[in-house]
Batch of 2 targets.
Target 1
Amino acid sequence: MARKRPREHLKVLLRKSQIRRKVRHLARQIEHDFHGEPLHLVCILKGACIFLADLLRELELPVSVDFIAVSSYGKGSLPSGEVRITKDLDHSIEGLNVIIVEDILDTGLTLSYLYRVLQQRKPRTLRIAALLDKPERRLKEVKADYIGFEIPNAFVVGYGLDFGEKYRNLKDICVLDSVEP
Ligand code: PRP
């Protein structure tokens, strides 16, 4: 007899109202740090797209955006640490105030690689904004300047984060568990 697949169970970790408040708070911190100077947001596809869209609309500064996509290998128990750019930025960042916008800082492999690559392109300033931080999983040290929430080591989905491309459209951020049928 064919085995039934485990059911997926979602438990809310962060409600949309909490997320909205936090994004506003991060925007105020950024405005305070940049004193009306123009900002260039670099969104890491795809998970950060919703955080980017909300943060962008909160910022009362002249702001431009660009997108970059990476793929990483060995994200299982033995990460190889290899990260590759699959879609590069459309524009030069030389001389700009750049903030890398990321949904989640997990092992740190993606951000430590991208920070190094983007730093070589001579931005005026380079900072990192990550909505979620899972410090327990860190393999590479990364200094994020703006962090929304520190979360436990659980698999989270929603607000841009996916499981096999599902759940990115959830308004809350939820912990995903598999339940045996
Ligand atoms: C996730 C997330 C971050 C990265 C963080 O992306 O969106 O970009 O992993 O992990 P790390 O700190 O361990 O490097 P994913 O590869 O799932 O792609 P996606 O954003 O397109 O869903």
Target 2
Amino acid sequence: MNLSELTLDREGLAAAIACEDAAFDAALREKAYRVKVDTVGPEVYLRGLIEISNNCVKNCLYCGIRRDIRCPRYELSEEEVLAAAHVAAQRRFGSVVIQGGERTDAAFIRKITRLLKAIKAIDTGDDPPLGVTLSLGEQPREVYEEWFDAGAHRYLLRIESSNPDLYRKIHPSDHSYDRRLRALYDLKEIGYQTGTGAMIGMPFQTAEDMADDLLFYKSFDAPMIGMGPYNPHPETPLTLTGAPFPSAERRFALGLKMIALLRLLVPDINIAAATALEVLDPRGREKGILSGANVIMPNITPEEQMVKYNLYDRKTLMRDSAITERIVVGYGRWGDSKHFRKKNFY
Ligand code: 5AD
Ligand code: SF4
């Protein structure tokens, strides 16, 4: 396939995704990088990632911290989360992300509310207060409202797959695609900058499914997207079914290609270079940036607990590496998506 033949409709996107020509991929990534620099600029925004807990009430068939897996569980104390947020402020990251397994107990919900207030009060000198993104799964609307009022302004909730049939195949029967979609619309209506995303290169997933994921991001009008390659975890039901999925090399190439295609499809959004890329290539996130991504989430979870947040095998991950020395960083700013700012007239 030739880059000049690429069209950004379902058929064209699916053809580009299915294409295994390395020269096409390289030309596509280069074009996406140029579009990024011209549209949102060369800066990469950092979000200090704090993985608050690997306890989860859900049982997603692909996930290494699903409810039914026996693994060491942990929950960071408020002091530990605040210490990590202070590090983010000192290093002028601009924002933090609090991510964790889904929890619905009142104690956890109140803890997040208290933490949000405390993080917003951290002294950041001449910079604005830290921006806070939450990634804590599906919650009742009132909970999303409580956290928004306490200072969270962005929320990440992946759709995981925009194809309801595929969604059903990779989740147990008590999970619901419609509920997930409802949660995404609740977040948006409340006023969050609502990010979503899907896994790339899963069993049962076709090139058309991936093209539909990209079109879903566009039609949902998401200001930010975090998507990444599927990485099998040896003890999950999805792996144990033995269902085939693309090789590591192919999943990595697909991960970069999806970033590049999305940058062309919706040029002014924030696109994260996911940690899942780094598992497949030691410079995975940097390559994501060179393919059109503009957000990186350096992990600032205390190391002892970080190793337990095993969504998939992360042994190859290097802590935070020296990546910030090799990219242009937008220090001390929230780095909101240009797309969201444009829509909301500020
Ligand atoms: N491979 C890649 N990503 C995964 N996630 C969970 N399990 C895996 C896996 N095996 C992702 C999901 C979830 C996010 C927190 O981690 O997309 O939304
Ligand atoms: Fe829980 Fe998220 Fe893993 Fe699903 S993907 S089991 S909700 S941590």
